[in-house]
Each structure stands twice: as C-alpha cells, then as structure tokens.
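Check this.
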Amino acid sequence: MEAAADLAGGLLGRRFHCTCGQEHHVPTDTVELQEDAAVRLARYVKELAGGGKVLVAGDSTTMTLGATVRTELRRSRVPYEGVVMNRPGRGFLKATLASADTLALRLTEGFAAAVAVGSGTVNDLVKFACTRARLPYVVFATAPSMNGYPSGIAALEVHGIKRTMEATPPRGIFADPRILAAAPRDLLRAGFGDAISKPVSGADWRMATWLRGGSFCPFALDLVRQAEAEYLAHAQAIGRGEAAGVAALTRALILSGVSMVVAGSSSPASGGEHLISHYWDLRSALAGRAPRLHGLQVGVATVVTATLYEEVLGLDSIDVTGCLGRYRDTEAREPEIRSRYGRLADETLAEVRAKQVPRDRKLSELERMRVNWPQWRSGLRAMVVPARQVREALAAAGCPTRAEDLGVTGEELEDAILHAREIRGRYTVLDLADDLGLLEGFARRAAHGASL
C-alpha cells in the first residue's frame, strides 16, 4: 500500500488557496494503509483524546474485524468503551438521523473522542454523531466500499429519504490492507461501482454551474481523475480481491472523498446516478424491503446516466419554445407527487421546490443554454466516460451492469429514471433531459432494454 501522506497529494491537514479563488481545508491529517494500522491508530488516538475515554463503535460484523483495534488501545493504555450499534438477528444497521442522534447523546457521557470501526453506514453514523457532540474521531476502515471516509458529509435517512448532511471529516483514516482485501467481494465491487460514477457526476456538477451558477472547482475534479486510469486498469483484480486492485481502488475512493471536502459539497462525486440509487432505496423502504448495496446500484445507474448523456449530447441545437411549452411548475406537479410519495410527499416537495425556478427564469436558462450549447456540449463530451466503457469496466470487476442484475424490474427502472430527480434539490442530467423533452422517451426505452 502507498504511504499515508501521498494518498491525497500532500493535501492532508492543509489549508491552501486554490485557482478557483477559494481557500480549501482538508481536516483529515493522517491516512495510514499499513498492516500495523491498528497500532498506528492506537498511538494517534492516545494523543487525540489526551488521556480521555474513547468510544469505539461499529456493527456486529465490523467490531469483530476491529478486535485488533481494541487490543492495541489496551496496550497503549487508552481507556475505551465499545458499542455495537446493532445486534445479530435484529436486522441490518441503518444510517438514520435518529440513530446518529442517539450515538451523539452517548458521546456526551464523558468521552473525548471516538473510533468508527466499519465502512459506509458505520462511518456516517459516527461522523455525524461526533459532529453533533463536537468531538474528533478516527475511522478504522474495513472495506473499500465507498468514498465517504474523508468526506465532509454523512448520508443519513431523514423521514424515510436519504439526505447528505454536513459533517466534520475524521482526523485520521486507518486500514489494514489485509482486512480490506478480505472484505466480501460485493463490497469491493460496490466500491468500484461508486468510483466509476465520478466522471458522470462531475459532468453534472459542471453543467449545473454553467446553467445556474454556483461554485465550481476544477482542482476538485482533477483529484478524482488522478486515480481513474489506475483503478480501471485493475478492474479484474478488484473483483478478485487482489492486493494491487484493492490499493488502486482505495486510493481512488480516498481521493474522491477529499475532492468533496475541497468542493465543500458532494457535487464532484454525486450526480444523477446517485439520485437513482437513492430513489431505489426509498422505494425499497416504502415496500419494506432491505436496501441493496449502494455502490452496486450506483454502478448500474452510471451506465444509465452515461447513456442518457449520449442522447442529450446528440442534440445539435436547443428548441427553446418547445422546451418552455413542456415546462410544469411544482404546483402543477404537486398532486402526482403527493400520490407517488405518500407520507414522504412533504419532504420530496421541499426538494422539488429547491430547484424550481419561475417561468421567466426558465426562459432565461433555456436561452443561455441555446446560445452556449456548442461549447457546453463539447466540454461535457470531454468529461463523460462512454456508457459502453462503463459497462465493460463493471463487467470486468464482476459488478452488475444492468438493472435486472440487481433484481430491478423494467418498470422500476423507468420509474427511477423519471422521478429520481424529485428527491434532491440538485440539478443533474435527469433534469436536463427532462427540460429538453428527452427523459420520458429514454425511460420508456430503457424499461424495455432498448437504450441500455
């Protein structure tokens, strides 16, 4: 594995002025991917906690993997208490705001710091709980399954809908490469699916800022692209859990997480493909089904959005009159949204309204798009990875490549393409395609396997 400080290009723990005009700060100052990671963590936490008590949190599986962490904390004479956030036979651990708040309350009972032992859900819960409690934490990563370890957000379910909540990143990330490589293959493949989405989500960010303004940082996107060629070249090795593949994937995911910190949002790493995944989670929750692995869904959804981009970028010009004639405001859509989301309708409508613009502003947006379309189209084409390449890379890693591989029906795929844009106030290719009158036809064809 690569030496710690080099993983983020010397950015760890630094404040720096960027060419985008902003000052950036990366709070995570240590990344250790070594076989003695638990030893290094114990030494770091002893200083971080200043002799105070530490809470070690995980789930029933990851706490077993983290036994060496507790052993090394004892050897370093760091007082700690362990908490298992779920129990065998009581269902899987869910990253909910309520669970994070419960953990935050526990942290007020004399703790000086926390250690998260786990991957996505565990990290998000501990990260947000420590943010609430104003305590530092470190994470002992157990799988390269997602990019959220160093990020400044936590993905939590709020009233049944997944939200990205601002949170303080960990001070340190520690991982034993043997544990990472031994993670279940589906977790490795989930990490690959999450990583491969970044060129498409980055295009969403670039396009949204062209159309609607807001901050954009090319440096943040460059961080993500640095590791792209390496992990794509190791796709088969990642799927097989080989050390070289796991190293390449871990680097890519950490850089992606750092890019979100630099950007100040999840925009470099989460676009329309993540909305489709979150929408499938929402529908599963409403149906009482367990969610699928997020990264596996994101990989398939990236094939979908990359294909949709190909249709959008096939347009030679923008028909402003036709686009404006199809435009419907939130009030016109509210009855169908309430019918579709039931008890989650108010939460959804708030997100829809967040990106709703008055008709006169929509006309202005469309005119700006028409005038700038040749330049924008060229820029987006240079960013988006072709759908065929995404599918081939996913297949090489042993990942699902089609909705049916996930157990998602054609009807459920069509539903997600049409409506995933409603659950988040972020403008993505799903909104762009809808504005241009392409989304319905694309969704219908995709449901019958004609577009993907």
